[in-house]
């Protein structure tokens, strides 16, 4: 069994409490220092899923190289994609910092702390740079407003390289019934559409995952590039799967999710990879192939490959996860990235993802996932509170530790 680290009073605390019903993980006060970089060699995994297929990753030594520390609860990181190699780091309390050249020291980029309700699973949670950001300066954020609702808003970069707080244009506002399971990931897809992850609203509202008259428990797909109607800040793409279906919100792209905290697109295939935070038993990895919408990942009929309540269930029309792990080895998944970098060739084409509680990063073969469920292959035990992954300007993987650091995954000694 992997070591379970004590949790901290950061972003995922409420999710962790809800997901680890045994109470084995006790929360402590936030404020731990970033853990030093660590190195590990891949070992064969302990089987934690009913079945698995796929070839194991070759033995690979990797390490984490800190690029920024002493951050205030970082939760997301993106490359500026403008030729500068700068990184933008999202801090949960409501700031975005810029790391010049991808290193530092950090400088201020956007501060909206006065507009953000932060704590537990609420706060400034995600960032997405619009296509053409280098020239148009448009970017989008997901945050919890002072009423506790989820807001997706556009901001503009100024000529001096900072963002203008007064440029905010609200794209979407979603009423939240509780303070947990807010989701928070946003990314532009290869099709130029904005994808937004929303959890099921927490507070026992698990039925939202399979209900299609609500945006909760979904991944949405919006057109934020065209001229929006006056009542909203977006257009619904006409090829969304539920457009024209009575009683169904047309913004929905994927459904049946509990708390899809982090998702990403494979740069090579455009497949959409999701880490969906589980409840009492399983953490899962879900995949939607490029351009495929309308999938139902099963919550709350199922949790991972398990039927809720331990009895049988009707799985008709449900898409099962491609990987999962149980709460003997972790308890809050941090969805990751398919590795397409050059520095660690043996990881090419593998999906890397982590766990907030155990600090472990795993990988699975991203190819031919339809062949069956596959067990995660341990890659490195970081000692970090892993909450997110990103890419630097060269396509190498960044790991975000909410305790205060962003690190680069590098070859080990």
Structure explained in plain terms:
With 413 residues, this protein is mainly β. It has one domain (13-411): Neuraminidase (6 Propeller). The protein has 2 helices and 27 strands. The strands form 7 sheets. The chain has a 5-stranded antiparallel beta sheet, with no helix packed on it. A hairpin with a 3-residue loop joins strand 26 (397-401) and strand 27 (405-411). The protein is globular. The two termini are 26 Å apart. Residues 1-54 have low confidence and may be disordered.
Overview features:
413 residues, mainly beta, Neuraminidase, 2 helices, 27 strands
Question: What topology emerges from the helices and strands here?
Answer:
Blueprint: H1 13-19, E1 39-41, E2 61-68, E3 74-79, E4 87-91, E5 95-99, E6 107-111, E7 124-129, H2 133-136, E8 138-144, E9 150-157, E10 163-174, E11 186-188, E12 194-198, E13 218-222, E14 252-254, E15 262-265, E16 272-276, E17 282-288, E18 302-303, E19 306-307, E20 323-326, E21 333-338, E22 350-355, E23 360-365, E24 377-381, E25 386-391, E26 397-401, E27 405-411
Antiparallel strand pairs: 1-2, 2-27, 3-4, 4-5, 5-6, 7-8, 8-9, 9-10, 11-12, 12-13, 13-14, 15-16, 16-17, 17-20, 18-19, 21-22, 22-23, 23-24, 25-26, 26-27
